[in-house]
Amino acid sequence: MVTQVTRGIKITVSTSFEGTFFKNYKMHYAFGYWITIKNQGKDAVQLLSRHWDIIDSLNDMEIVDGEGVVGKKPVIKPGESYTYNSGCLLASPIGAMKGHFNMINFTTTKKFHVIVPTFKLNAPFAIN
C-alpha cells in the first residue's frame, strides 16, 4: 500500500494481481487497484478528471486521461472519503502506475492537482 497527501487530500492505493489471459494472440497480465481519496482539508472538493502513466517492464507506456473515475465525479466533504476500484492490463508481469487527479475546491473555486504516488503492479510469480 502506498500513501501520499497533496493539499490536504490523502491518496491511498492498494493493488492485486488478478490473473493472466490471452487476447489477440498475446498474453496479458491483469491487475486491480483500490484507491481511497480522503479529504483532510476544511473545504469540500470535487474530482473532475484523472491522468495516468501506466508503465510495464517492457518499457511500454500508456497514457490515459479521462473524466472522473469509474464514471463518477465524486464530491468529497471535509473528513469524508471516497473509495473506488479499477484495473489495467499489462503486456508483462511487472509494471507500475502513477498520475494525478484534477480537482476543484468549492470554497475558493480553484482547480488543483492531487498526486497519485507511483504504485507497483507485480504478479506474485515474477517477484524473487
UniProtKB/TrEMBL annotation:
It comes from the Bacteria. Coiled coil: none annotated. Residues 3-128 form the ApaG domain. Pfam families: DUF525. NCBIfam families: PRK05461.1. This is Co2+/Mg2+ efflux protein ApaG.
